[in-house]
Amino acid sequence: MLECRIPQGQLLKKIFESIKEMVNDINLECGESGLGVQAMDASQVSLISVCLLNGAFDHYECKGQYCLGLNMTQVTKVMKLCGPDDHVIIRHNPNTESDRVTFIFESPGERKVSSFDLRLMSLHTDSLGIPKMQHEAVIEMSTKSFIKTITDLSQFSETLVIDVNQKGIKFSAEGDFGEGSTFFQASPPEDTSLVENVSLTCTADVSCIFSSRYMLYFAKGCMLAERIQLSLSNKQLLKLQLDINNDKYVGSITYFLAPRFVENE
C-alpha cells in the first residue's frame, strides 16, 4: 500500500514536467524513504535521476517496494488538474487495484477535490547504475544565471562549449553568422553572497562540447532550485545536480550528459 500527500502540488507537477522533457516512460520506484526515478533518454546520451524524499510529504506511508510504470505524457495531462494551491495525494493499492494509481487533488480554498485513476504500464527496463566519477572541475552558480546563459547561447548553435579554469567558467557557441560567449569569474572566498556568487574548484583545465538541446532540457528542470552544482572532466560525463526547493531533505535531481567529440579527436 502506498499513500503519500504532498502539500505543494505544483512542485510535483514541475518535477514531472522536467522528466517529460527527456523521457516518455518511467518506472516510479516507491519505498520507505520516498519516491525515485532513474531514466535514460531514447538516444542514450543523457540520464536523469530524481529522488523525492519522504520529507517532501506531510503524510507518507509505503508498506513495501513498488514500481509504477507511467507514461509521462499521460501523467502531465493528469497533473493539469492540479490548481495553484492544491495538495496532491498519490495512492496505490496492489491488492485491490494493482494496475492503477490514483491521483487526488485537494483544493482547500475552494473546498474541491478532483481525482484521476491512471492505468499503469508494464515496463521492463534494466537497472541504471549512477556513474561515480572524480571531476576535475566543480562549479556552483546561480540557477538564474545558468538558465539565461544556456537559453541565450543555444539559439546560435546546436552545441555549447564549456571551458573551465581556475579563473572561472566560460560558455560559448559558434553558429553560421558568428560566435558568442559568456564568462563567469570565480568569486573570491570572502564573497558571502548566497545566490549570485560563482564558487569554483578546479584541479585541471577543462574543455567540453555538449548538445544545446539537452542543456536546454536540463535548464528547465533547474527552475526547482536557486543554485546548481555543475561537475566536469575532460571527455567525461557532465553532471548537474540541484536540491529541490533548495532543501536536501526534500530531494534532488541529477542530470548526466555525454560530451560530443570533434572528428579529429
TrEMBL record:
It comes from the Eukaryota. Residues 129-259 form the Proliferating cell nuclear antigen PCNA C-terminal domain. Gene3D superfamilies: 3.70.10.10. Residues 1-127 form the Proliferating cell nuclear antigen PCNA N-terminal domain. SUPFAM superfamilies: DNA clamp (SSF55979). Pfam families: PCNA_C, PCNA_N. GO terms for biological process: leading strand elongation; mismatch repair; regulation of DNA replication; translesion synthesis. This protein is an auxiliary protein of DNA polymerase delta and is involved in the control of eukaryotic DNA replication by increasing the polymerase's processivity during elongation of the leading strand. This is DNA sliding clamp PCNA. It comes from Dermatophagoides pteronyssinus (European house dust mite). The lineage of its organism: Eukaryota, Metazoa, Ecdysozoa, Arthropoda, Chelicerata. The gene is LOC113788660.
